[in-house]
Amino acid sequence: MAGFDDSAVDLHSIGNATVLLRYGDLTLLTDPNFQHRGERAHLGYGLTGRHLTEPALAPQELPRLDAVVLSHLHGDHWDRRARQCLDRSVPIATRPHAARRLRSWQGFR
Fold first, then answer.
1. Which of 1, 13, 36, 104 has a Cα at 20 to 30 A from 60?
2. CA 30 to CA 22: how far, in whole Å?
3. Domains in the chain, start-ordered, CATH in brackets?
4. CA angle (47 as vertex; 42, 49 as ends), nearest 5
C-alpha cells in the first residue's frame, strides 16, 4: 500500500479484544478490559465469562491515548476498570447505543 510504513506500527495485546495500537504518533486502545484471572465478565442476557489470564498491562500503565475504539458495550469489551480509570477526555469511537450509555456514565465522550 502506497504511503504505509509498517515499521511505524506497534501492536500490543493486553488480553481478550484489548489491543494497544501505535502508528507513528497515533495511539489507540481497542475494547478496554482489564479484568484479572478468575473474574467474571457480564456478557448480557444473564451470561458471564470467566477470565483465564491476567491482563498484560494495567490501565495505569497505558501511554497517553488519542482515542478508544469500542466495538460493543459488554463486560468483556468494557469493564469496570476501564470505566473507573480511563481519561474521560479521550474520544471513544463506538456504536450509538454504547455512546449514549458512556455519556451518561460520568461524562465519557
1. 104
2. 11
3. 7-104 (3.60.15.10)
4. 60
